[in-house]
Design a protein that fits this description.
About 50% of the residues lie in helices and about 0% in strands. Among the domains are: about 35 residues; about 100 residues, no CATH class. By secondary structure, it is mainly α. Helix 2 packs across helix 3 and helix 8 crosses helix 9.
């Protein structure tokens, strides 16, 4: 009887150990397969999604880096504290005489602030500026595409990338249209600062 209990006990231990090794092997294989993928698609993204938060669901590390651009702490690399460059170097007023930068020229802050800082800049609140000023400060590709399609460019399916001639043609047509608009009118076409889609 005692021998039989030991025999059953050994079988149970071996079965549990075998099951554990099999589960461990399966887990290792799954993790190895995950390691081969650069992106885990949690949200469907295409060339019409400009919201950085949505991109962040599929690209969390990159989004975390994007959010760190909101940090305004000064570092040995400069940081993104919005100090007045004209105050720091008055010669810049002479260099930029006749240009908007002679009114206000602040240190660039991170991407998170790019559109907000431009909207608040005296360069666009006190001077008439073209829509092309948005190009470096906002996620403009969706606005360009929509303006191009509205002007008659052939629409591309949402899944088509920028290598699709229809999307590229619409974006380039919209680029010319939006850049020629007054800044205030062009600014109404965008929602997000420079972000992942750019």
């Amino acid at each position: 009887m005692k021998r039989r209990i030991i025999y059953i006990g050994v079988i149970v231990v071996v079965a549990v150990a075998t099951g554990g090794v099999m589960l461990l092997g399966r887990n290792i294989m799954e993790r190895r397969a995950e390691g081969e993928r650069a992106v885990f698609e949690l949200v469907e993204l295409d060339e019409t999604v400009a919201d950085p938060e949505l991109w962040g669901r599929n690209f969390p590390r990159q989004y975390e880096g994007y959010l760190r651009t909101a940090d305004t702490a000064r570092t040995r690399f400069g940081g993104s504290e919005a100090f007045d460059r004209l105050e720091a170097d008055p010669r810049l007023r002479t260099i930029f005489a006749g240009y908007g930068f002679a009114l206000e020229y602040n240190e660039d802050r991170g991407h998170v602030y790019s559109l907000f800082d431009q909207e608040e800049s005296r360069r666009v609140t006190e001077l008439e500026q073209p829509g092309s000023c948005l190009h470096c400060h906002a996620s403009t590709t969706v606005a360009y595409y929509e303006a191009g399609v509205a002007a008659g460019a052939e629409p591309a399916p949402p899944s088509a990338g920028f290598d699709d001639p229809r999307r590229l043609d619409a974006v380039m047509q919209g680029f010319r249209i939006v850049n020629a608009l007054p800044y205030e009118e062009a600014n109404r076409l965008v929602e997000h600062p420079v972000a992942c889609i750019d």
